[in-house]
Amino acid sequence: EEQKSLLLESSSRFLLSQGVKVSYGTAGFREDASILSSTVYRVGILAALRSLKTQSVIGVMITASHNKFSDNGVKIADPNGGMLSQHWEPFADKLANAPSPQQLLQLINEFVEKERIPFDGVRPAEILLGRDTRPSGEALLEAARQGVTSIVGAVASDMGILTTPQLHWMVRARNKGIKASEQDYFEQLTSSFRCLMDLIPTERKVFDGVNDKLVVDGANGVGGAKLRILHNLLNVLDMEVRNSSEDEGVLNDGVGADYVQKEKVAPRGFGSKDAGTRCASLDGDADRLVYFSVPPESNAQIDLVDGDKILSLFAVFIREQLSLLNEKEDIKNCGKARLGIVQTAYANGASTNYLKNLDLEVNLTPTGVKYLHEKAAEFDIGIYFEANGHGTILFSESFIEWLEVRSNMLSSGSKGSEAEKAALRLLAVSKLINQAVGDALSGVLLVEVILKHMGWSIHRWNELYIDLPSRQLKVKVADRTSVVTANAETVVVSPPGLQEAINAETAKYNQGRCFVRPSGTEDVVRVYAEASTQEAADTLANGVAKLVD
Ligand code: 16G
Ligand code: ZN
Questions:
Q1: Domains of the chain (ranges, CATH numbers)
Q2: Residue 530: which residues within 8 A CB-CB, separation 6 or more?
Q3: Is residue 308 annotated as involved in ligand binding?
Q4: Reported ipTM
């Protein structure tokens, strides 16, 4: 009864905007901020129920990532720090669209019963709330807090302005019983980074001649400000952060990883003065990272070093460490360590070839972090990346335990052996790189230390393989759900005949590859085409776009 009146009372303060229908989508709800308060309030309720059900701490992050600054969004972090279980997404949709407080209450009652969510004599719900720098964030965070506290006994903690991966990291740490403040996050990143720096082979410490400075575009968002903090704590990297939320500039406006990767141009504030310098770009909530370099001639396209190439760099480094481990004969079992690579159909074909030529197992999943992450978790070490720069490296618990035992055994026996160093490096990577979700801050640190380890410039790195020319287009259609795909989005199964038509078109091009899929975040169908020349990729994409239309 107390619960019922609490919910009815608070939900009457967050009535649904007329005619609005929202959907949880690939990565949570995302809309114009002005219509979001009832949605965010209801996500607060959902998070509290999820916390009761799992008897764990749950996170709510308020952000719209790379979308324009007047938008906002909300997503849930599950107990392990990953995305909300897909099994609860339909309930999220229903809850967010319930027309009246009474219907909302009824939905909650039914769901609580169906999922057997415990209320009595259990640990009360506990939710961590975070937001990015958007102006609408503060009021929306308050709406989330009211949603959470409309469940009797539930506690909401405001963690303040954070990157998305920081909040996910905190949720994971809390549920593992590890200290989980922002300071602990910085502490873990800086100490594991230092450890990797100390383990760089001395003969390789010289960078191959080129300017060692890194310049980072922070998308005018939260990531730039946090990276400045990290930089000050580390005090060893030659790094300049531009376009932070503390600077002028509008969030995601001509800046950020999404813009740089899709448009293949330098972000605002970067130009010919940076020619040859190693540059990186974060997105608005710092869960994506790409690198690039600016050519000397203005107007020329940048050299983009995208998520596929970050993945390739990580794969080369990890593979090298695994082989060092294997060289020691007394180390049995290590050969069993399974290294798996996960990409989507958007991965440049040249990257997939490159990885396969290294004898690595490459898996494809549909677009969206939840799919890639789930697949990568099947391996001892799973590396996943989307071309757009979202990705991370997952280590299985058992492999980490094994590494810990091995590095201890080795330190008592053979002090400072190559195998021991490799084990220590892998352990440090598992602490540096975010185990919950792709994280541009830990990504930058890992890229930087690996480049130093290899003695590579950005150009050397970029030459691991040469990207095939590609083109992406979007097509507005009456109903994008009429396009249904299979095999990790590489094949259209409906409408009938479309795939055959795409095949016929693609066959006309040397090294042609093309697929179409309905977007999970916009009301469009996306077309991706690849071929041996840019012109061919463009014509293939245009040709297939006409087939979809
Ligand atoms: C979301 C996804 C991202 C994906 C993108 C595709 C998460 C956290 N983010 O931003 O992984 O690449 O959607 O968008 O899952 P699209 O469906 O509009 O192409
Ligand atoms: Zn993002």
A1: 2-161 (3.40.120.10), 308-439 (3.40.120), 470-548 (3.30.310.50)
A2: 348, 349, 468, 469, 470, 471, 511, 512, 513, 514, 537, 540
A3: no
A4: 0.98
